[in-house]
Amino acid sequence: MLDFLAQRVAISALTLFLITLIVFTGVRMIPGDPARTMAGTDADEAGLQEIREKYGLDQPIPVQYVRWLTLALRGDLGESIRTRESVVKIVALKLPITIQLAGFSLLIALGIAIPAGIFSAVRRNTVWDLLANAVSLCGVSIPTFWLGIMLILLISVRLHLLPASGFVSFLQDPLGNLQRMLMPAFVLGAALAAVLMRQTRNSMIEVMSANYVRTAYSKGLAERVVVLRHALRNGLIPIVTILGLQMGALMGGAVVTEQIFVIPGFGRLIVEAVFTRDYPLVQGVVLITASSYVLINLLVDVSYSLLNPRIRVKGAADES
After folding, report:
1. Residue 50 has what pLDDT?
2. Residue 122 and residue 10 share a domain
3. Which pTM was predicted?
4. Residue 182, CB half-sphere, CA atoms under 13 Å: how many?
5. Which of 34, 93, 236, 319 has the fewest CB atoms in 10 Å of its CB?
6. Over pLDDT 90: what percentage of the chain?
7. CA distances from 55 to 9, 59, 70, 287 (A)
8. Which of 11, 46, 73 is the last residue before a domain boundary?
9. For 42-55, how does the pLDDT look when each residue is reduced to its tens digit (9 = 90+)?
């Protein structure tokens, strides 16, 4: 188990190193001069040069990268060019909002997808199966921005059931927070639920045809016991894989969703940082997002060995 974890951690560390290279290089390909953006259009060359020297923008790219990476390893992601605030402080204020949104979206997706996928697999080739597949196909096909706008028009503008936009801290107003997060969470969770539902159905159909499941039925066990106790655990392995990959999609979808519902989270922060050419903020935000994605996939790898110990044993046998 320790060798399995060490291998996965080493791969994750290498991936993060490559990500830092890509992020740092990609940010500097954004058109425009961040020094002029910060100083304004009327700034003279001497003022621009002073800003470049202060933030190290006049140094060669490799030198800037080494300096940034060294500070990042110490937990210092620099200072925002636009607001003069610490990037870590800005992220600490915005990231919990997006994490809450992604968490609610995940709960909605799992609450819809897992029961629907299991029911569709158990009732395969019935009208309920066809209906579930049709709904999931709609969920995958509908664009996030269109669904968000339609929900605002229907639920907020016409029915006046939920606020159309804005954000309130959960600590400040728990009910108001839930009311404002429900629609954006459903928008993000709908597409994820559609993907997970189809994967759950396919995985459960494959597992239900296994010999041990037929043996369980032959022993006279109830269908509920066979499905939930014997089939679901092995059926969850590909679902966990898809879930880990889709967590990155949740963060990406949050960019559009937070813009539509005016939520001051991580997604809006990325857009504002790119538009203002705020190098340190863009680098910090993308690095934290990528690190979260790598960490989630590391946890997915570890969960494989917990759900199915044969994976861990096979990995150890291959190494020997």
Report:
1. 78
2. no
3. 0.74
4. 15
5. 319
6. 3
7. 33, 9, 15, 19
8. 73
9. 667 777 777 777 76
User: How far apart are alpha carbons 313 and 319 in whole angstroms?
Assistant: 10
Instruction: Give the closest residue to 75 by CA, choosing from 269, 265, 287, 251.
Output: 287
**Could you tell me which residues are beta bridge partners of residue 86?**
79
pLDDT at 152: 92
Residues with Cβ within 8 Å of 137's Cβ and at least 6 positions away in sequence, in order, are 194
Structural domain including 108 reads 90-275
pLDDT at 273 > cutoff 60: yes
- Give dist(CA 16, CA 23) in Å, integer: 10
CATH of the domain at 154: 1.10.3720.10
* 31 and 147 both lie in a single domain: no
